[in-house]
Amino acid sequence: MKEVENYLLNNKKLKIIQRRDMFNFSLDTVLVTHFAAITKRTNKIVDFGTNNAAIPLILSTLTDKPIIGVEIQKEAIELAQKNIINNNLEKQVSIIHDDINNFVLHFNEKVGLVICNPPFFKIQENSNVNENEYLKIARHEIKINLEQIIINAAKILDNKGKFVLIHRPDRLIEIITLMKKYRLEPKRLRLIYPKINSEANMILIEGSLQGNKGLIIEAPLIAHNEDGSYSDEVKMMFLGEE
Fold it and tell me: Residues 122, 167: contact at Cβ < 8 Å?
């Protein structure tokens, strides 16, 4: 399948190589990356399920902290490695070809931030499963499920380290229950609405390992104007750094 190279968002300094038959970065990728709070005590960032490294690429415009992208699909890893090399980010970004469960088992560090744009659908959900294997793995919990993502994030976070996730509203109760089960205290929640007066179709949530109790529900994020164009807030995210 032919690879296509484009500028990353509107940033003329970064380019991303993608394949049309595989997962391509979307608004979800941009939103979860910009939701992540990177502070002075964020020593390192790990991206679970990095795919073609879109999240590390965007993060590199927001921070100079070391970033690790973990991905199980060999073909996606090849794209990710090309993207890191083509953008001269080898000193900041490392790409690891591994199952997340195995990666965490052998990872002997504690990090300040874990970020994830996960598969949204449980394997028993039969909608839209008649697609190619690359997209099945990216969209459905075939290789890893929500609980495994959360428990693995908790294992490698340092005390008060942050876990950031984008997901569907209908799994919010499950997400909060699992986060609290594994000592990730929900700290920030933001609902994403496709347009004004529509129902929320995505959520952004941050948990802090052994953090103090107290959840902030942030202002709603409206993704699109009535004419279908991106809202001003989303446009700002797409501008990138010049």
Answer: no
Superfamily of domain 3-239: Vaccinia Virus protein VP39 (3.40.50.150)
∠ CA 26-51-205, nearest 5°, is 60
**Which has the closest alpha carbon to 69: 42, 102, 105, 94?**
94
Cα gap 203→195, rounded to integer Å: 14
Query: What H or E segment, with its residue span, contains residue 135?
Result: helix 133-139
Query: At which residue do the structure tokens 């073609």 appear?
Result: 52
Q: Tens digit of pLDDT for each residue in 184-231?
A: 999 999 999 999 999 999 999 999 999 999 999 999 999 999 999 999
Three-state secondary-structure class, residue 50: coil
How many Å apart are CA 69 and CA 213, to the nearest integer?
Answer: 30
Which tokens belong to 173?
């109760």
pTM: predicted TM-score of the whole model, two decimal places: 0.88
Which structure tokens are listed for 83? Answer: 């993207």
> Judging by DSSP bridges, how do beta strands 221-222 and 184-193 pair with one another?
parallel
- Residue linked to tokens 């995210």: 237
pLDDT tens digits, 53-106: 999 999 999 999 999 999 998 888 998 999 999 999 999 999 999 999 999 999
